[in-house]
Amino acid sequence: MNRTTIIGHLGDDARLIQFPDGQFLAFSVAVSSKTKEGEKSTTWFSCTSSQTYHHEQLKKGKKVYLEGNVGARTYTNKKEEVKAELYLRVSYIDFVERTSLLENDIVHQTS
Predict the structure, then answer these.
(1) Overall domain count for the chain
(2) Beta strands 63-76 and 22-34: pairing type?
(3) Which of 18, 20, 31, 99 has the CA that lies 20 to 30 A from 40?
(4) How open is the CA angle 95-41-54, to the nearest 5 degrees?
(5) Which range marks the domain in which residue 81 is found?
């Protein structure tokens, strides 16, 4: 079973993509962590979701909790360089907020 959970920040506003059989959302999410040496590392995920009712809520910088199937693919950029990317087919979206009193992350049920 391929099931992944990530918590990160949106890198851009979600785009609503139309196609003949329906529509989906496309957006990127940055997941940050620290190494043992204290260096910051960021991993980017290209995300898609059929949960289009979240379109207006998915704005750049918003912190999200996502579940879905992860994969990797290669592509050739405009400079003709072969690159790799991680993608997440999102099946669950929730929003994470920081409280000023507790300084803990709180996940709010929205789905």
Answers:
(1) 1
(2) unpaired
(3) 99
(4) 20
(5) 4-108
